[in-house]
């Protein structure tokens, strides 16, 4: 990593030649003090000429249920962007604490699939710091570009709980009414070790996902599934019903998914839209609402 | 008096068109596709076919495919691949397995249903991986685990499991051998090759021709609409365009024993991973889809030989299937513009050709009046075959079928004359599958 001098607009660049080690970032975040109260730092995290590792992608595909094929799963660039996100969020002047931040929403827009052996540039910046009913939230925007063309864009919204803002506007998930008539769908058992299995293929060893013993000090009675794992399982299960190109995939994360759990997916398809709900098997707890548009 | 039931209407068999094919490049085992499963590869091959022939979201009459080396997780492989593909999820599918004959037999089954009017279109395919091969527990351990599973009380489960001994833990890896003889296919073929006096030089020459022909086919773009790149591979990576008889002559024999051993790694096919698909349809369906038939699937035949106690060579069944197919269609062995004889080993091809020229074999074994005779060797495997491309068992039939159909179309368009091709594929278990295409 090297801190490049500020650009004309005062933006600071964090350059990475390899993915930053998330375990180290988490370890220092655990002992770090409170987040700053200032504005968002104008920082751009950059990794140039990124190529996914075919074996790691195959491992990821197996864990999440994607086929092994010549293009990256829709959700995979997030795995590569996530360390850059945490690098920004662990900056001293970042106004939200990395540990304890909740991933509440994620929007992926794919212009076209990225080839397994294709090189792309990855940039991440933070924007849109805003109040949330139960604290403050911020968007981490990740972009994969090939020859100047953005082929994949991910907007990850993180919430840091704090002061209530009852009047804050919220992003409302779509109406789930169409799903009421959907009687069946895939049912999955998420075993206790799902967090560790996903951590191994994604590098995200956040202690809340690893084990009940490491999750408890952070306020969770059991370990909880990575949101991006549950979401990837849904995207993989929708598979060929979703186009590869020109698609927007939006997930609203709801209640944390405690491990182990049995979950159920229900989906409803329209000409240019698929609406899905991942809930507990008994349908009494909503874990994620997913909408694809193309 | 019994009431007369009306006779069912006689149905005319319909012509069956081969519309095209798609495969992924074949990869030497434990290389480029080491992480891909049969289902990944078959799905990729189907998706490439769907993209090329506008089948995305369409319901096809039936998908028939198989794999020779199958995991228990490959249950319903063809159907699961369809569900993961861009074809409409309402497309029916089923699995077959006939060793190396799987791909061509799948095409015969699809063609027959189309001919009978039971379906209007279909996809025949196959996939095989020796890299991602199923590994089973030893037979002894399997019995112990099943007994433990049957036990009701935990104490009984423990008792059953107490029978496990270290030697039980050695995994059982699939062997390329015949269950009834314990001999590998190559060692079987070595016996046959020696009986027929097939020389090392002739085998090496055939191998070199295979590499050169396939390399030339790639170079002139012949495979552009037959192959879709997969996992970073754009060409079969077993292909050695610069292969030479001199280089092959240096290799040591790997099958057979003694000074007469002639079969080397150079003139035998390597273990390979890959998948292939072929689109077949009725004329009406092809027309409605604005697709031009490459060739017509005329007829197919399967034969088997009794190889277990050595009365016949393991891979000799096609030598029996071909004359039966010729007789049924009123043809001679010389009535073909192209011959596609699967190169399991160079010696297999040479043995078949020699057998058809042999008076004693043709009269005594085949029951013919005279030998079938020689073929024009310049018409043999003109775009290369398994020695160059590799041979992912169930995927070979689809590779050959699509490639021959395209070659026939090009020749027919060039000459304005009807053309005909013969496919011959040998398989484990003493099986042979053969077929005729016309354009």
UniProtKB/TrEMBL annotation, chain A:
<dbReference type="InterPro" id="IPR003965">
    <property type="entry name" value="Fatty_acid_synthase"/>
</dbReference>
<feature type="domain" description="MaoC-like">
    <location>
        <begin position="191"/>
        <end position="275"/>
    </location>
</feature>
<dbReference type="Pfam" id="PF01575">
    <property type="entry name" value="MaoC_dehydratas"/>
</dbReference>
<dbReference type="InterPro" id="IPR002539">
    <property type="entry name" value="MaoC-like_dom"/>
</dbReference>
<protein>
    <submittedName>
        <fullName>MaoC/PaaZ C-terminal domain-containing protein</fullName>
    </submittedName>
</protein>
<dbReference type="InterPro" id="IPR029069">
    <property type="entry name" value="HotDog_dom_sf"/>
</dbReference>
<comment type="similarity">
    <text>Belongs to the enoyl-CoA hydratase/isomerase family.</text>
</comment>
UniProtKB/TrEMBL annotation, chain B:
<keyword id="KW-0012">Acyltransferase</keyword>
<dbReference type="InterPro" id="IPR002155">
    <property type="entry name" value="Thiolase"/>
</dbReference>
<feature type="domain" description="Thiolase C-terminal">
    <location>
        <begin position="292"/>
        <end position="438"/>
    </location>
</feature>
<dbReference type="GO" id="GO:0003985">
    <property type="term" value="F:acetyl-CoA C-acetyltransferase activity"/>
</dbReference>
<protein>
    <submittedName>
        <fullName>Acetyl-CoA C-acetyltransferase</fullName>
        <ecNumber>2.3.1.9</ecNumber>
    </submittedName>
</protein>
<feature type="domain" description="Thiolase N-terminal">
    <location>
        <begin position="16"/>
        <end position="284"/>
    </location>
</feature>
<dbReference type="Pfam" id="PF02803">
    <property type="entry name" value="Thiolase_C"/>
</dbReference>
<dbReference type="Pfam" id="PF00108">
    <property type="entry name" value="Thiolase_N"/>
</dbReference>
<dbReference type="InterPro" id="IPR016039">
    <property type="entry name" value="Thiolase-like"/>
</dbReference>
<comment type="similarity">
    <text>Belongs to the thiolase-like superfamily. Thiolase family.</text>
</comment>
<dbReference type="InterPro" id="IPR020616">
    <property type="entry name" value="Thiolase_N"/>
</dbReference>
<dbReference type="InterPro" id="IPR020617">
    <property type="entry name" value="Thiolase_C"/>
</dbReference>
<keyword id="KW-0808">Transferase</keyword>
<dbReference type="InterPro" id="IPR050521">
    <property type="entry name" value="3-ketoacyl-CoA_Thiolase"/>
</dbReference>
